[in-house]
Design brief:
Length: 386
């Protein structure tokens, strides 16, 4: 295991400090012998202790060990005092010195423990701040990726705090939002403003949640869709304090929905206005939809046709049963001949082209084209007879 320059320097500094402290202790002992009344021990032995307390690692064990060694030297200095020295004064001074020494040791140990707790708290705070920064960075990245922005509106002061991500959803640069709810309202699309503001007001009054989808107008004049989700935060008395929530970019979803509506409208327009008869039949054989061309062909009203079983209008029951069985089995019918009874009692010869719409293997409805070939069939029969 290698040691870096910093670790090596720390060990050298520790060794020098211990050596100096040991030298200081011996020096004080010599001074004590030269002044046998014990005046030197009051402060002299405290200086090495203070020096050892500055060491980062071993001071916790060195301090009491050094204090014990100094106590032994103080006692030895007393017994080594030359004759003629007042033993009472020497004993009192040394007892005071020993008390001072151990009080100082306790203070230094408590100070060191306090410093260690402070350093641990600072390290924990730094780690927490680092984790918070990482979480904030991840949240920012997630918001940017998902096109989500957060806000906090102080209802009491009317200060509305926006993150840079939500400012971007309104076409604003970071820090350019005005900071009040009126600044938000002014950016709502005129056609959506009243309903959105009313939903916001209702959430505050009822201490509930704000849920709304609305358009906003960017500074460049373009229009964009957002979804708002927020919750009211109250104090202990139930007074609303803040509205905290997010805005979500739903432009893509709205474009897909609009395209789907256009597609459905195109399909509906094709179905209703096709010149060929069209109808849908459910898995139970009931007619669920029909276009005007087929109603005109057979002479029924919509009420007389939709909601009835398709078999009611077929002349040959084995034929319609075969058609339904084949379609339920996933088969596509091409030019399948059948005969259908009109409202006036006449019978038409038709060719049926049909298949079934399945979703996850579930029968939804048939898609059936009915083409009248009665005239062609009569003409072919007349030609054969002649």
């Amino acid at each position: 295991m290698t040691m870096g320059p910093t670790g090596l320097r720390g060990k050298l500094e520790g060794a020098v400090t211990i050596a100096l402290a040991a030298g200081g202790v011996l020096g004080v002992f010599v001074l004590d012998l030269l002044t046998p009344l014990g005046y030197a021990v009051w402060i002299g032995y405290g200086l090495p202790l203070w020096a050892l307390s500055r060491l980062p690692a071993k001071a916790k064990f060195l301090l009491p060990a050094t204090a014990l060694a100094c106590t032994g030297l103080i006692v030895a200095g007393y017994f080594l005092s030359p004759p003629g020295i007042n033993p009472g004064i020497a004993l009192v001074n040394r007892m005071i010195g020993v008390c001072f020494l151990w009080v100082m040791t306790g203070v230094l140990l408590r100070e060191r423990a306090t410093d260690e707790r402070l350093r641990a708290a600072q390290e924990h705070l730094q780690q927490s701040e680092a984790r918070l920064r990482q979480s904030s960075e991840r949240l920012t990245l997630a918001q940017q990726s998902a096109r989500v922005g957060a806000f906090e509106w102080n209802i009491q002061t009317n200060v509305n705090l926006w993150t840079p991500e939500i400012e971007a959803l309104y076409g604003l640069s970071a820090g350019s939002f005005g900071g009040h709810v009126e600044d938000w309202i002014s950016r709502l699309h005129p056609d959506d403003r009243a309903a959105t503001v009313a939903a916001n007001k209702q959430a505050v009054e009822e201490l509930g949640e704000f849920k709304s989808e609305f358009r906003v107008v960017w500074p460049d004049g373009t229009i964009h869709w957002l979804a708002g989700r927020a919750k009211v935060i109250c104090d202990d008395s139930g007074r609303p304090l803040r509205l905290i929530g997010v805005n979500i970019d739903i432009d893509d979803r709205k474009q897909v929905e609009a395209a789907l509506r256009r597609s459905e409208q195109d399909l509906s327009d094709f179905f209703d206005n096709a010149s060929t008869g069209l109808h849908w039949v459910g898995p139970d054989g009931m007619i669920v939809r029909v276009n005007q061309a087929e109603l005109d062909l057979l002479g029924y009203s919509r009420e007389e046709y939709v909601g009835h079983h398709i078999g009611e209008f077929h002349v040959d029951q084995p034929i319609i049963q075969d058609i339904l069985v084949r379609l339920a089995g996933g088969e596509t019918l091409h030019e399948y001949p059948a005969r259908i009874r009109c409202k006036d009692g006449s019978i038409l010869d038709v060719l049926i082209n049909s298949n079934v719409l399945f979703e996850e293997d579930k029968f939804i409805h048939t898609r059936c084209f009915t083409r009248d070939v009665t005239r062609h069939k009569r003409a072919d029969e007349a030609l054969r007879e002649s």
